[in-house]
Amino acid sequence: MGEYQCYEFVALERPLMAKQMGELRNVSTRAEITPTRFWNEYHYGDFKGDATKLVARYFDAHLYFANWGTRRLMLRLPSKHVTIKSLRPYFVGDAARASSTGRHVIVDLCSDEEGSDYYAEADDGLLTALTPLRTELGCGDFRVAYLAWLLAVQLGEVDENATEPPLPPGLAMLTAAQLAMVDFLRLDRHLLTAAAAASPAPTNDGAAARRWVRALAPLAKNSWLERAIKEPHLPLGTELLGAFRRQTKTPPRRPGRRVAELLATAEELSLKRAPPPPRRSSRSSGSTASPQKH
User: Fold this and answer.
1) Which of 133, 103, 19, 117 is nearest to 64 (CA)?
2) By CB count within 10 A, which of 114, 210, 212, 220 is most buried?
């Protein structure tokens, strides 16, 4: 099988303008470009653009796949939805990075394993399955960030004496998008199980959020309503829920576990679930039964 690469970018919050589409056409003459998507695949040659710069300027999500073992996912969120400060404890290596452009925060995740990879050649639905991660993270669901930290742990980029960042609830009950993230980035299921063992069950905070909204000062409510009118394309519900969770969240009640502890537990789980070795026969393969004496 020859080389294969796939580049996909999507614009979710604002469609691309004609001028922007023209700029992208200068990057690639053969890519499929629409107001919401840039897609190209290569069986030879390579992409001439810079994916990081394209996400920073045009797109809200990017997926890269190469059949020699590299997978990359980038998500761009408005800084009003999530702060780089809140993400910093989770993004500590090269495989899981978070950066700020001022207006946006960009999450960059990369899984790189040597050897051929036949996972998803030109799977048009793959990035669609992953884009809800933006909304979840923007709403204050930090399971996405914790999974990124686990990726760095798995790849050996976190010191074994380091302690885990704040543990979010619900790691044992991941959403469909989070499960797609686990599969795409090849997160070790034993490591995930070890981490999820101490994660509390998620709680429904919808009623508390509604009480919080009703208690907002009139000036604050007017500000939200004015933004809804001026910027109807923005997911203000996501931003509002995220603001509620940031202001009302409580610190974790238990100290973080050491990375070495998580890795040891994952190893134990792996050994327990490994298939048993084949049983040895009571007779050697070359033996024959002794003749009976009559």
Assistant:
1) 117
2) 212
